[in-house]
Write a structure and sequence with these properties.
501 residues; alpha+beta; four-stranded antiparallel sheet; three-stranded antiparallel sheet; 47% helix
């Protein structure tokens, strides 16, 4: 998940433009890495910054992150110089995600109402299987499948495993069957005994099947990367619930809400017949690799996925991907088709939820919308104050330019906390001119390597010493947009917290 793919062959169907690779505006022959509202970041300056920390890799994507960071803060300084309150900036697009999520939460309160009353007996039963520290003692029979096995050979091994399972279920001695047939060298001679183990010790399919069993029960045939297993649980043990009773009850309540929500979302998606369009995944990869670009007209309306009553478009995906940190954006460019398909379907669910909310006439009140915008504006003001850009002088002032580069140098060396502006940065790029010239990235990388080669090897620092360990990588996640999620939107609450320990 490191290298963005090239533009797809069908890129002519839509155009990408904006603060991206600028073609005629700047070329690989210039030494200007980026421009922002009349300011310039040159190759030698970018290389000098990155060379300050030898633990930051000299790679084109790192140069891109640095250029984006410099553009973000240079434009922020321009906005502050014009109006220190930033009151003139329209935050509607910036707060759209937060407002949509607030609507979804209102819908959730109406439709997600699981049974969360647990009797003491139910609580004790769930504790015995799901409480922290629960352990089981199990035996298993493993039949391995050669890596080069044909499907017919795999079916044959699975069928033999099923035969052994039926023999064990009919009362034949499980330990004897394991000793005779299991191909797990670590347990076969002990009758397949794996001793006691808790959650997280075994591969997921094996663990899931084993923990579902009661003492004496035998599992169906379970497939894992190791082969086919038949499992028998010999014993269970668990500490007393004691003072953790109410905390565990709350965990179960949260879990019940999540399960009910998942069932509701699955039902909604099924009834809407969500379908990813041919070529849609390739378009998603391309846009994720150039989130600073803009889509206009028909290009923004191209369908990535369709569902009963609507479409999820390229423009909507661009809005989403701009709210994500660079790591997530990069994951979209390199994910498998299956991973992308799941992500697109999850994002489409948000559209379905908003449509359902509209049908139910669920809207935000004026005070709720005003509160979201006020929170966003205050978060921006706090960021400005933290960076010292308030009262930064006139637009284009040398002092402000020097201040921004000092901030970035401190960020690279781990001495300053600085974050990419994310969607707010894109809002600024819609107001002020900005350009990034990817044609110079190779020059910056070469210059960084040259500078580092001429420097003495850094002294080894003791663990925990100031500056020890990697400094923040240009492009680490910034403060999320109010209500923004750090991944494909799922229209729901986070997963329940782990059981109390």
């Amino acid at each position: 998940m490191r290298y963005p793919l090239a533009l797809i062959a069908a890129a002519g169907v839509f155009s990408l433009s904006g603060c991206g690779d600028l073609g005629q505006a700047m070329t690989a022959h210039t030494d200007v890495v980026a421009r922002a509202n009349g300011k310039e970041l040159r190759v030698e300056e970018a290389a000098e910054m990155l060379a300050l920390n030898p633990q930051i890799p000299a790679e084109a994507q790192v140069v891109r992150a640095l250029a984006d960071l410099w553009v973000d803060y240079t434009l922020l300084a321009s906005a502050v110089a014009e109006d220190s309150t930033l009151a003139s900036l329209d935050l509607n697009s910036f707060t759209e995600t937060a407002r949509e999520q607030a609507v979804v939460m209102k819908l959730r309160e109406q439709v997600i109402r699981p049974d969360t009353l647990f009797s003491d007996a139910q609580l004790q039963e769930r504790w015995s299987t799901e409480g922290p520290g629960a352990e089981i003692r199990a035996r298993h029979i493993l039949l391995r499948v050669p890596a080069e096995a044909t499907q017919a050979q795999r079916d044959s091994v699975k069928q033999f495993a099923e035969t052994l399972r039926q023999r064990a279920a009919a009362g034949e001695n499980f330990a004897a069957l394991a000793t005779q047939h299991s191909e797990d060298p670590g347990s076969a001679q002990r009758g397949g005994d794996l001793d006691y183990f808790g959650r997280g010790r075994m591969v997921a399919p094996f663990e899931e099947a084993a923990f579902k069993l009661q003492v004496g029960q035998i599992s169906p045939v379970v497939e894992t990367p190791f082969g086919y297993h038949v499992i028998r649980v010999e014993d269970r043990r668990q500490s007393q619930m004691g003072g953790q009773r109410e905390q565990f009850r709350q965990y179960l309540v949260t879990q019940a809400h999540q399960l009910a929500e998942t069932a509701y979302l699955d039902s909604l998606s099924k009834s809407a017949n969500v379908q990813v369009e041919p070529g849609g995944l390739a378009v998603v990869r391309e846009i994720a690799g150039k989130p600073e670009s803009s889509l206009k007209g028909r290009a923004a309306q191209r369908a990535v996925a369709t569902y009963k009553g609507g479409t999820f478009t390229t423009g909507e995906f661009l809005t989403f991907i701009r709210t994500q940190p660079p790591q997530v954006q990069n994951m979209f460019t390199t994910a498998s088709d299956e991973q992308l398909q799941n992500a697109v379907q999850q994002m489409t669910r948000k559209e379905l939820l908003l449509a359902e909310a509209k049908t139910r006439k669920i809207v935000l009140s004026k005070s709720e919308e005003d509160s979201i915008r006020s929170d966003a504006r205050q978060a921006i003001r706090s960021l400005v104050q933290a960076t010292g850009l308030t009262g930064g002088g006139t637009r284009g002032g040398a002092a402000t330019d020097a201040r921004i580069k000092t901030l970035i140098r401190g960020y690279i060396t781990g001495q300053t906390q600085l974050v990419p502006l994310g969607p707010f940065g894109f809002l600024l790029r819609d107001v002020y001119p900005a350009e990034i010239n990817s044609g110079t990235f190779t020059k910056v990388v070469q210059q960084v390597e040259k500078i580092r080669a001429s420097q003495p090897a850094p002294a080894q620092q003791a663990p925990g010493a100031p500056g020890a360990g990697p400094a923040p990588h240009p492009g680490v996640p910034g403060p999320p947009q109010p209500g923004a999620q750090q991944g494909p939107p799922q229209g729901g609450m986070p997963a329940p917290a782990a059981p109390p320990r």
